[in-house]
Amino acid sequence: MSGHSKWHNIQRRKGKQDSVRGQRFTKLSRDIYLAAKEGGGNPDTNFRLKTAIDRARQSNLPADSITRTIAKATGTLEGRHYEELLYEGYGPAGTAIMMEVVTDNRNRTAADVRHIFAKRGGNLGESGCVAWMFRRIGEITITKTDCSLSFDDLMLLVLDAGADDIKESEDEYVVTTAPEMFAAVRDKLEESGLTLSDAELSYEPQNTVPVEGETLDQVLDLVDALETHDDVQNVYANFEPVEEADES
What we know:
Elements: H1 6-13, H2 21-39, H3 47-58, H4 63-74, E1 83-90, E2 96-103, H5 106-119, E3 123-124, E4 134-143, H6 151-160, E5 165-168, E6 172-177, H7 182-191, E7 198-205, E8 209-211, H8 213-228, E9 232-237, E10 239-241
Parallel strand pairs: 8-10
Antiparallel strand pairs: 1-2, 1-3, 2-9, 4-6, 4-7, 5-6
Helix pairs in contact: 2-3, 2-4
């Protein structure tokens, strides 16, 4: 799940992670494939590929798997051909959900995703049904332990680079940009000596729907099921969890 909304933080606190090592490797390999296919096989000139390789190494994806994936994407080695798709749908309580999908068989993936929605009180929609509720943004993450600047100094730097905003959480800073400024801001921050822990284009809901209780559990179950599917790379949704107050 991408993004830095409250519902993402709730899942991280619960320790939600891919439980199957092979599934994690599959998603990492597809990230590498798409990055190399889009921008070439040299990570020194392809930041998306560099980021994907760094993620893969952190998760102990074997080096030969990384090399083979890049070779397949650039056409120097035979292999499956993947395409990147955007699926949209509705979850419980009318929540809007978007998914970035990478697949070598769009009919199979569509059937699988449709089944996941139907089984959990939602439905897979037509292209464009919820996209208007989201806006495309660039997100650049800087871990606090990797940054020697104060928040004020960092804010001046990122705004001068052309970013829209910067937000601070417990352990990181998240810089947001317009899509067309993403590459320029990312490059300028790197040139300034900052270490970026992540940088990607994402989707952010323009408005959120408060969800609580049993409905929240149903929505989170749907998001979990979508994220678990091998072909689903990222999930975005427009709900805002309402955490119940502890009774004393």
